[in-house]
Specification:
heterodimer, A: mainly beta, Immunoglobulin-like, 6-stranded mixed sheet, 4-stranded antiparallel sheet, globular, B: mainly beta, 7-stranded mixed sheet, 0% helix, 50% strand
Chain lengths: 113, 115
C-alpha cells in the first residue's frame, strides 16, 4: 500500500523568511513524488515532481524539494516566501505504473507581513 | 486549450437522491481520477480509471460508483446520497506512462451539499 503523510496541518512564516513543508511517504518501490499547490476555490496545480536522479528538484516560483530514500521524505523548500505563496500545499505519490496517485492531507501555509 | 471540466460546479441534493458528477478532459490522457476533499483529510481517492471501459476502486469507494464510457468522460455516481457525502469533489486526468507519469491535471471542483 502507498501512503503520504504531511505532519503539519498549518505553517505560518513571515514574509521573506525561509520555508520547509514536510512530507513523508510509504511505498515499497521507488516512488514518483509530486508537490501541488491549491489557491482558494481552485483546483490543484503542479509545483514540481521527482522521478529519479538528482534528489533536489526545482519547481515553479523558486520552490524546490529534496528526495531522501533513507528517510522516506520529500520536503518542499523555498528560500524566501512572498505573501502570494499563502495557499494549501499537497504532497502526492504515484505508483510506478502511474495509475494510482495518493495525496497527503495538505499543509496550509500562511505568510504574514 | 487542454482542460479538465467538471459539471455541475455546485449541487444541492436530498438524502436518498441520485447524484451524478461529470468530468470531461481534452488532454487525451488515459487515466482519470475522482477525489473528494475534506478539511483534515486532504484529497482522498474514490475511483480511478486507466482507459475507456475500466474503473478501479480507490481508497474510499463505498457509496460511490464510477463510469468511463469514453476516453474523454468519467462520471461519479452517488446512487443514494447521504449527508456524509457532502464535500468538494475533484476530477483529474493523467498519463500512465512516459515522461509525465503520475502527473495530474485537475478540474476546478464540484461542491456537493446533501441535505
Amino acid at each position: 500500500a502507498q501512503s503520504v503523510t504531511q505532519p503539519d496541518a498549518r505553517v505560518t512564516v513571515s514574509e521573506g523568511a525561509s520555508l520547509q513543508l514536510r512530507c513523508k511517504y510509504s511505498y515499497s518501490a521507488t516512488p514518483y513524488l509530486f508537490w501541488y499547490v491549491q489557491y482558494p476555490r481552485q483546483g490543484l496545480q503542479l509545483l514540481l515532481k521527482y522521478y529519479s536522479g538528482d534528489p533536489v528538484v526545482q519547481g515553479v516560483n523558486s520552490f524546490e524539494a529534496e528526495f531522501s530514500k533513507s528517510n522516506s521524505s520529500f520536503h518542499l523548500q523555498k528560500a524566501s516566501v512572498h505573501w502570494s505563496d499563502s495557499a494549501v500545499y499537497f504532497c502526492a505519490l504515484s505508483s510506478t505504473g502511474g495509475y494510482k496517485v495518493v495525496f497527503g492531507s495538505g499543509t496550509r501555509l500562511l505568510v504574514s507581513p | 486549450e487542454a482542460a479538465v471540466t467538471q459539471s455541475p460546479r455546485n449541487k444541492v441534493a436530498v438524502t436518498g437522491g441520485k447524484v451524478t458528477l461529470s468530468c470531461n478532459q481534452t488532454n487525451n490522457h488515459n487515466n482519470m481520477y475522482w477525489y473528494r476533499q475534506d478539511t483534515g483529510h486532504g484529497l482522498r481517492l474514490i475511483h480511478y480509471s486507466y482507459g475507456a471501459g475500466s474503473t478501479e476502486k480507490g481508497d474510499i469507494p463505498d457509496g460511490y460508483k464510477a463510469s468511463r464510457p469514453s476516453q474523454e468522460n468519467f462520471s461519479l455516481i452517488l446512487e443514494l446520497a447521504t449527508p456524509s457525502q457532502t464535500s468538494v469533489y475533484f476530477c483529474a486526468s493523467g498519463v500512465g506512462t512516459g515522461g509525465n507519469t503520475g502527473q495530474l491535471y485537475f478540474g476546478e471542483g464540484s461542491k456537493l451539499t446533501v441535505l
